[in-house]
Amino acid sequence: MPKRIFFFSDLDDTLIQTRRKTDFSQNTVVASYDKEGNESSFFYEGTKLLIDTLISSGITLIPTTARNLDSYKRTVFYTNNSIKYALLNFGGLILVDNKIDQEWSKLIAQKYSEILQMDTVYNTLLDHFEEANLDLQVKIIDGYYISIYNKNNLDNTEILGRIQESLELFVVEHKDFYMYENANSFGLLPNFLNKKFAVEYIISKYAPILTIGAGDNISDLDFMKLSTFKLLPEMYSL
């Protein structure tokens, strides 16, 4: 296999934006659809041109995202035959030619067998939020992690501060887990579920000659630090 340049990139808020965050005074291109088939995320024209230029020059774009498989399938990346690899669920699932990398999945499954079951953690977390009087949308994502969404109080800084404080207290008591934060969305993830570990695996297995990392969230720094070069969007939260 020829050695190549690998470009590991977060998707949401890095390459694409949701409808709520998109500035439609600029030229845009559809990037993903919701479950009903409606346009839900968008590229800015310049970003789409950058991606197309990188791919056409032989650089291997590797989506490195929190999206799960169902959500990823509704993006234009999934149907792009030039995209060979994808790291999903914060790196818990790796696709090669849109097929699950079974070797990686076995390694991840072994790690899950060594911690509390996600159902147990989920129920404990629900009780924790109830005690804190927080009205949140909480669900387990494909058995990988727990998603917490501040759906009913979007951008309410007082509520967001309380969620953050509540989760910080929770992870102190449950040391096998850590907190992820992105605007109104939060996550409770096992310590081994991190994009950086999946990136390390891909780099070790396929030995690219150079790597590029792009992301917008402080959690993305973990995998970006593994890259030869690092890219940030104009508006970022790092």
Task: Describe the overall structure.
The protein is α+β, with helices and mostly antiparallel strands. The chain has two domains: 5-92 and 193-231, 3-Layer(aba) Sandwich (Rossmann fold); 111-190, Hypothetical Protein, Haloacid Dehalogenase-like Hydrolase, Chain: A, domain 2. It has seven helices and 14 strands. The strands form four sheets. A four-stranded parallel beta sheet has the order 5-1-13-14, with helices on one face. Strands 9-10-12-11 form a four-stranded antiparallel beta sheet, with helices on one face. A three-stranded antiparallel beta sheet has the order 2-4-3. β7 (93-96) and β8 form a beta hairpin. It is globular and about 55 Å long.
Mean pLDDT: 94
The rounded Rg comes to 18 Å
Biggest sheet strand order reads 5-1-13-14
* Helix-strand topology string: EEEEHEHEEEHHEEHEEHEHE
Main pleated sheet: 4 strands, parallel
CATH architectural arrangement of the largest domain: 3-Layer(aba) Sandwich
Number of helices: 7
CATH topology of the largest domain, what is it called? Rossmann fold
Extended strand count: 14
The CATH superfamily of the largest domain is HAD superfamily/HAD-like
| CATH class group of the largest domain | Alpha Beta
Brief descriptors of the model:
Hypothetical Protein, Haloacid Dehalogenase-like Hydrolase, Chain: A, domain 2; 2 domains; Rossmann fold; 238 residues; alpha+beta; 26% strand; globular; 7 helices; 4-stranded antiparallel beta sheet
